Amino acid sequence: MVQTDPAPAPQRRRSRPGRGAAVVGLVLGLSGMLFTVNARSAGADDARHPQDLRELTEQQAATVERMSGEVDALRFQVEALTAEQNELAGRRVVSPGAGDVVAGGSVPVAGRGLVVSMDDAPAADTGRDEVNPDMLVVHQQDIQSVMNALWAGGAEAMSLMDQRVVSTTGVQCQGNVLRLHGRMYSPPFVIRAVGDPERLRAALDADSAVRTFVRDAGELGLGWELEDRTDLDLPAYSGATELSWARVPDDVEVLPGSPVPATPPGDSP
Questions:
Q1: Which CATH number do you get for residue 211?
Q2: How many CA atoms, within 13 angstroms, populate the side-chain half-sphere of residue 189?
Q3: How many structural domains does the chain have?
Q4: Residue 183 contacts residue 254 (beta carbons within 8 Å)
Q5: Is 153 inside a domain boundary?
Q6: Is residue 38 part of a domain?
Q7: Element (H, E) at 178
């Protein structure tokens, strides 16, 4: 009998991962990476988003300031393009006078004038528990009374806080916080007016609403300070000037001296 060598045992072949397994691994890897990125982004977003009302107010104020600068830049471009088109078309454009430019707030103004500072009263310093807390803060009408008196006293230009006051300026108080042109301010509220300081002081003294505030300032501790200045420097107005709506009182002439058009029957003025 012829003996033969036993056949070699078959070796185990090393299996290679299939294409499907590779794809699964790639998907899992990408999923983990995306999860990590999203987690980090969420943490960064939490840091960027305001955490309370104060941070939200500051963020909105910064946004308004940035957008006001963009509006100014676009306005300058529009004015330049308009002037260029008028020149090419040969149109005669009447330039506004210096007084109109100053009144419109489109240019900065420097000169002597008066600075008015108004502040809330510290409740602890009144020593009177029966005092209404509403009497211890500066109200919207208080600020408006001072501004109106200064205009009546011949103010050529005015600013409230760090912003120029123009014809479209609206003063609005929410609690003891002032809202002006989309920005929020806390007291003290500072009003700067360019004009004759003596006339401005006399106008404040003659206004009954201002006298009432000054009296309360002496009795309740409200902040009231006047300062003559020879070096006031008011900025130009920054922001939009468009009106949403406006109404002229019946007894006020829009353009003094110009004829008033007749009102058609049945139409209200």
A1: 3.30.70.1880
A2: 27
A3: 2
A4: no
A5: yes
A6: yes
A7: strand 177-180
Per DSSP, the residues of 189-234 read EEEEEES-HHHHHHHHHH-HHHHHHHHHHHHH--EEEEEEEEEEEE
Is the domain of 230 the same as that of 168? yes
Beta bridge partners of 183: 180
Contacts of 2 (CB under 8 A, 6+ apart): none
Q: How would you write the pLDDT of the chain (269 residues) with one tens digit per residue?
A: 444 455 444 443 444 445 555 555 555 565 565 555 555 555 544 445 556 666 766 676 677 667 666 766 666 677 677 667 767 777 766 666 667 677 777 789 999 999 999 999 886 654 566 778 888 999 999 999 999 999 999 999 999 998 999 988 888 888 788 988 878 899 999 999 999 999 999 999 999 999 999 999 999 999 999 999 999 999 988 776 666 677 778 887 766 555 555 555 555 44
CA distance 178 to 58: 14
User: How far, in Å, CA of 177 to CA of 62, rounded?
Assistant: 17
**Would you put residue 164 in left (φ > 0), alpha (ψ -120 to 50) or beta?**
beta
Q: In this structure, are 70 and 142 located in the same domain? A: no
pTM: predicted TM-score of the whole model, two decimal places? 0.61
124: in domain: yes
In which domain, by residue range, is 51 found? 24-89
Q: How far is CA 35 from the centre of its chain?
A: 39
Dist. CA 253–CA 259, nearest whole Å: 10
